[in-house]
Amino acid sequence: MSIVGHWDVSIKTPVGSLHVVYHFDRDDVSGLTGVAAGKHETVPCTDIAVVDEGNGQRVRWRQSVTKPMRLTLAFDVLVEGDQLSGHSRAGRLPRSTVIGARC
Questions:
Q1: Percent of the chain with pLDDT strictly greater than 70
Q2: Quick check: 39 and 48 in contact, CB under 8 A?
Q3: Taken in order 56, 30, 75, 25, is the CA torsion positive or negative?
Q4: What pTM value is reported for the model?
Q5: How many other β-carbons are positioned within 10 Å of the β-carbon of residue 40?
Q6: Which residues pair with 98 in a beta bridge?
Q7: What is the DSSP string of 42-88?
Q8: Strand 96-102 to strand 83-89: parallel, antiparallel, or no bridges (unpaired)?
Q9: What structural domains and CATH numbers belong to the chain?
Q10: Which of 2, 4, 64, 80 lies at 20 to 30 Å from 53 by C-alpha?
Q11: What is the dihedral of CA 45, 46, 47, 50, to 10 degrees?
Q12: What is the pLDDT of residues 42-67, one digit of tens each?
């Protein structure tokens, strides 16, 4: 199953859990597009890369946020059916666990 669609995602950070809704879609020009909508802002997902694996799709992307602080986050998740799991990382900060479900 593909990353395309809406996803309800929880990111467990050192300062607490964040709830974010993602929407990924196909685009004839760039292949895949994505948008992340959180409590404070809505930002585009960039550098989206998908690799098919035996048990699902490995999806990686980046996004820049300004709230609660200015960070560039790098995501690495495995999509298996209607579930995704993996991690995000902001520079030298520890990894944050990412889990989500298609909505």
A1: 99
A2: no
A3: negative
A4: 0.92
A5: 11
A6: 11, 86
A7: EEEEEEEEEEEETTEEEEEEEEEE-SSS-EEEEEEEEEETTEEEEEE
A8: antiparallel
A9: 5-102 (2.40.128)
A10: 64
A11: 20
A12: 999 999 999 999 889 999 999 999 87
